[in-house]
Amino acid sequence: MTTAPEADTTAEPAGAAEVTDEHLARALGLRVCDLPALRDLTAKVAAAPGGPPLRLRDLLHRRLRSAVCDDMLDPRALLSARPREAEPAALDGRPAVPLPEPEPLPGITLADAVERRSSATTYAPRPLPLTALAALLEGAAGIRGRRPGYNVRDFPVRRAPSAGGLAPVDVYVVANDVTGLDRGLYCYRPGGRELTVVDSGNMRGKVTEAGIAADWLFHAPAVLFLALNMGRVEWKYGVRSYRYAHVDLGVLTQNLYLVATGLGLAGCAVAAFDDDTANDLLRLDGRDEFVSLLFACGLPAGR
């Protein structure tokens, strides 16, 4: 008796089609050119057998661990490396407003500043002095000196420390009610101690539109937009720079709080905002440069 051969269980069912990149992209709602990024995100992430399902933040955290980041600059390459521009480039044809000599910081102790620091969402209906704004910007995000670094003789050293000293956080200022400063949007350029005009006019409505459940932003005399410039750090730290940049953002934010406290100003950091609205307001691409935090400030209510 002849025995029928066993079926090949590894063969594809009749009529089964190969899953192509086009099929996969269509199923995920992506483009084919987006798939390498997706594969890179998941390639070095393995879920433990029997463990809980992976979450989005699990994928991000595991992919951004230093042990799996293979695109950081070889330390030997630093011998000839040049950093990216350390602050926003000057805007062609845009006027710049020199900042006045900032108010001196009162002689309070760090312990006092830490103890008194708080978040405030109400402000006195009075203009914020430009000297106070200058002191806040210079004291929290200014340049305190220059020294050789990255094959540059006078590489700037900021008051807010950052990974590699690369300062990926840029500060934009929406001036709603600042003495001696026309209403509008400005970019802080610490190298020249100046504010470059990005846009002019009443920005209260646009800032409030960017915030989420933060109508009180309408009344803030000044709102700082803290934007990350990823190109300034990615050349050295690769994909892991996304983690570093947000640590740097937190350090700068604490500087803003402590300096504002020392100056007797009221301030509040805001993380709840619509990204596209904020980026459009600052004319950022939302990809390599994007808003990551807001900081409103003014004279405290009752003062």
Per CATH, the superfamily of the largest domain is NADH Oxidase
Second-tier CATH architecture of the largest domain: 3-Layer(aba) Sandwich
| Secondary-structure element order, N to C | HHHEHHEEEEEHEHHEHE
How big a fraction of the residues is strand? 15-25%
CATH class of the largest domain: Alpha Beta
- Biggest pleated-sheet summary: 7 strands, antiparallel
State the secondary-structure class.
alpha+beta
Helix content: 25-40%
CATH topology of the largest domain: NADH Oxidase
- Provide the number of structural domains: 2
Low-confidence stretches: none
Ends: how far apart? 104 Å
Bulk shape = globular
Provide a count of the helices: 9
Q: Determine the mean pLDDT.
A: 89
Rg from alpha-carbon coordinates:
25 Å
Query: Strands across the major sheet, in which order?
Result: 1-6-5-4-7-9-8
User: Count of DSSP E strands?
Assistant: 9
